[in-house]
Amino acid sequence: MAPDRKTLFLEGSIPRALVTLAIPIILANLLQTGYQLTDAFWVGRLGASAVAAVSVSFPVTFLVIALGSGLAMAGATMTAQYVGAGRQDMVNHVAAQTMLMVVITSVVFGALGYVLAPMLLRLLGVAPEVFVGALGFLRVSFVGIIFVFMYAMFQSLMRGVGQTRIPLYIVAGTVLLNFLLDPLFIFGWGPVPGLGVMGAAYATLVTQAIAAGIGMLIFLRGRHGIALHWRAFKPDPVYLKRAFFLGVPGSVELSTRALGLMVMSFLVASFGTLTIATYGVGSNILQVITIPVMGVAMAVATLVGQNIGAGNIARAERITWLGTAASFLILSVLGGVAWLCAPWLVRFFIPDDPQVIANGAHFIRIMCLAWGGIGVQLCIVSAFRASGNMLGAMIIAMVSQWMIQFPLAYVLAKHTTLGADGLWWSFPVTNVAVALISLAWFARGSWKTVRLTEDDKQVAEVSKEAMIEEGGLR
């Protein structure tokens, strides 16, 4: 990390630091949705069975990716704290060992997923006409999961050192390449045979492999804050054990959210096709509007981690409060706009169905005025992760979905006169309740006692020396 960026992140204007980090992350997240949109566009040309094959495969692969993402959280957290502490040697060590752990984990998950794919699809009750396409798509996805994990880890480690522009450039290139490869692999051209729905999976596999390869090359060249050497990949059992147990709560948290999406879908499905369509449109809109605050939350995580590593606990707290306030304001304003424009938003996704437009607008207007609570929760949880308090983030996720939203949605929908409206009202109530819980927990200050770099006996001395080192981190 360049000296001027290090000074900005540890001593400079907090709003400027947040904006510097958040904007490239937001743009990368927007581009990342290009993968899904491109696949949906081309696969949609194959018919309903092909679309269904991709749709039923997504929750399975999402769950597996969520299980492995805790390792990325652990690596990014420790990287950020060691950057703040001035420990470039440990930044490089953490990066190499985390990449090693991610590769091993992804090989295990990929192999298990490939073998168990038929059983998983049968458990989901996939229709016979969809089964073959879904199995092919799922198996190719599991083969490529090593590249998905490696690139996700590259992004996380880059964020940890405060470098968010390089991943943006890579995502932009791979999204464009995926747009070109999708029709080529799906429909074929010249000597390239058409592979149908499996072609979309192969296109993603190729682009993710290229992205992962570029990421590793950047690490090995060592010009952007992390420098790896092949000898650094020799397993360090002490670190691997520490990172594993730090990452497990993060994996549980994301898996809880992934399973939550599946369970909520089952509950919604019990109300029929119109409710399913309404929920689908509302979920798509919710996914899009959270992209800006996800960027802010990731920027908060990087800055909080680096400042905790440097011993700037008070500054880390100010960063969290400012990021939380900004996220609350952004989503509250977007909520007001969504309330006014609800029918037009739904019509963008489903232009010719008056019932879905009316019901979708009703759903959006119920939940949108509490969107600010989502921004609060995302930033507080990011600060907990950045401090190394993964358990707190996990508990908030579990309380949010399994103790508040699902019981509330079930009771309101099934045991009151609200019916499907009970599902929709569970969203704002949950958002407000979890935001208040998160704020109260953060205000207690227990997160301030966790500092991962203190496990190193020399960290205090090195932190002081780092302040006068010429050139800072390279």
Summary?
This protein has 474 residues and is mainly alpha-helical. Helix content is 81%, strand content 0%. Helix 10 packs across helix 12.
What do you see in this structure?
The chain has 474 residues and is an all-alpha fold. The chain has two domains: 1-235, no CATH class; 252-464, no CATH class. It has helices spanning 3-10, 14-43, 48-84, 88-123, 128-143, 145-160, 165-187, 197-221, 237-269, 273-289, 291-309, 313-349, 354-367, 372-387, 390-414, 420-444, 459-466. Helix 3 (48-84) packs parallel to helix 5 (128-143), helix 11 (291-309) runs parallel beside helix 14 and helix 14 packs antiparallel against helix 15.
Span of the ends, CA to CA:
5 Å
Number of domains: 2
Q: How would you characterize the largest beta sheet?
A: none
Strand content: under 5%
Radius of gyration: 22 Å
Q: Which runs of at least 5 residues are low in confidence (pLDDT < 50)?
A: 456-474
Indicate the overall shape.
globular
Helix/strand order, N-terminal first = HHHHHHHHHHHHHHHHH
Let me know the average pLDDT.
83
The counted number of beta strands is: 0
Roughly what percent helix? over 70%
By helix and strand content, what is the structural category?
A: mainly alpha
